[in-house]
Amino acid sequence: MPCSPASYCGAGIPAARSSPRYLHSYGRGCSQRGHLRSTTWLVAWSRILCDSANGRCRLRCRVRYAAPLRSAFDRAPCGGDSQRSARSRSLSRREVQVNLQDISTQLLFTTAPVWVQRANGEQSFGTSFILSLPVPDTADQQIPLLVTNAHVVNGAERAIVDLVGREGDAPKRGGRLRVEIDGGTITAFVDAPNDLAVVPIGGLLNQLEHQGRPVFFRSVSPDLFPNEQVVSDLAAMEEVTFIGYPSGLYDEHNVSPIIRKGITATPPWNDFRGQPAFLIDAGVFPGSSGSPVFIMNQGAYATRGGLVVGSRLLFLGVLTEAILRTERNLPPVFLGLGRVTKAHRVREFAEQVRQQLLRPR
Description:
Elements: E1 21-22, E2 42-44, E3 49-50, E4 63-65, H1 86-93, H2 103-107, E5 111-118, E6 123-134, E7 142-148, H3 150-153, E8 156-167, E9 170-182, H4 183-186, E10 190-191, E11 196-200, H5 202-210, E12 215-216, E13 218-220, H6 228-232, E14 239-244, E15 258-264, E16 277-281, E17 292-297, E18 300-303, E19 306-309, E20 312-325, E21 333-342, H7 343-358
Antiparallel strand pairs: 1-3, 2-13, 4-9, 5-6, 5-8, 6-7, 7-11, 8-9, 8-12, 10-11, 14-15, 14-17, 15-16, 16-21, 17-20, 18-19, 20-21
């Protein structure tokens, strides 16, 4: 039967008889993406739905509202609007709506901070971002994945992630959604040699939507991954933008990360020391691990063929390490350099995860 925007049906699925839900990464036959304002750069997920009535969209993540980890990184109590003062709520209502048509503004909603507690009592903190991959042989179906570093989640007993609430088709100011993910889920897919971890979050989004706490976010899509020719055309020194939570710092009130800039320190087409990585010259600190790194040009940019008027957004990779100078009898010193695992390796690993998720069970 033909699909209508009201029913959000999918291939082989009748019109939904219950509340529609987000595309679940473990489910199959999920629905088409509904109408939502987006740009050619980023795929908007807040209207990707599927029908849970037939049981194909099973929840696999154990998600609940979490007590905060006892950590120096946790600078605000869990509780959202209920713990904000009346004055803060009044100010929030008078705030101007953000410009979601701006590329840099959209990038703010691709990331999420991650706190991890290990069985031995140790804790770690890092950055994660949302990556979307299409379901093969479908017109418009996607799988949402949370990407971070393997060293951030290694040995995790539980993890806490802060997401942004949605109000209509816009982010909810001060609408922090804090959720807990069990260690088995967040460590299920790890690429240790390249320091990558991928977490399917379809079930998490489904459950929050069902609870009446929808999430607002933007995801990095395959369109942003440069191919080999595009990478070879890049300059040795390109300006880069990365987004994350250095030293655990972020705007808890607005649930907003920190945007930083730098330049490539080694050519992005070279494999640094024979690994699928390159270096950037920027202020990289603990907590930045897992930050997505972009080339974002607005107005004009240089290419092999000359100056191009227009805008460009490319996903170059994931920050995995802050480079330290270590010398005998001297304390370690940050060199202002960061190691970035290249985008093509991120995509290869994410596609391996996608294949496992879609494998018949």
